[in-house]
Amino acid sequence: MVKSLNDTVTLNNGVEMPWFGLGVFKVEDGNQVVDAVKAAIRNGYRSIDTAAVYKNETGVGKAIKESGVKREDLFITSKVWNTDQGYEKALEAFDASLNRLGLDYLDLYLIHWPGPNADTFKDTWRALEKLYKDGKVRAIGVSNFYIQHLEELLKDAEVVPAVNQVEFHPKLTLVELRQYAKEKGIQIEAWSPLMQGKLLDHDVLKDIAARYNKSVAQVILRWDLQSGVVTIPKSINEERIKQNADIFDFELSKEDMEKIDALNNNERVGSNPETMTVGFE
Question: What is its EC number (predicted)?
Answer without folding.
Answer: 1.1.1.-
